[in-house]
Peptide synthetase (Marivita geojedonensis), 183 residues
Amino acid sequence: MIVRKLLFQKETLHADELGRVSAPVTRAAAMAVVQNPFAGVDAEDLSDLFRIATDLGPDLAKDLVSMLPNPPVAYGKAALVGAAGAMEHGAAVLHPKLGAPVRAAIGGGKSLMPSNHKVGSLGDRIDLPLGHKDDPWAFDFIDTVTLCVADAPRANELVLCIGLSDGTRMHPRVGSGPASPAP
């Protein structure tokens, strides 16, 4: 596995889009730009891509946890695949092996990690969905972080993304579902 770069994004929200002040919520994301060994290759067995998640996932997740002032309550993942790759390459990086190291880093998580993957080009954006780590019906925690790496993915690369949040959306008003909001 060849990692070209790692990027981290942290944002602390203090008000919603209309300027309504709220308790701060911090969202953090990690992005790993890696070479896609299957770029331009038609392969049935994509298990070599699983290793990207098992090799990078634990450290990225631990770094993200350290960036949050409160314990994480929401998580998500995404992959942006360069043009010489296939959307299934993003699925192979995300689905079989990434959830376990993230759950280990945050101390649990019963819900499936929301995910998104697509094929894109340099500077494309990807929306990383977030959802409550234990309750998929906790609507107030359903959120999105938009990520971008200006010089990635190149045609033969993919960008692995992991996101965590320590709270709900800003000023949620659609009903929280069973989980109660974080302080």
Q: What stands out?
A: The chain has a mean pLDDT of 94. The chain has one domain: 3-13+25-165. The first strand starts at residue 3 and ends at 15. The first helix runs from residue 50 to 67.
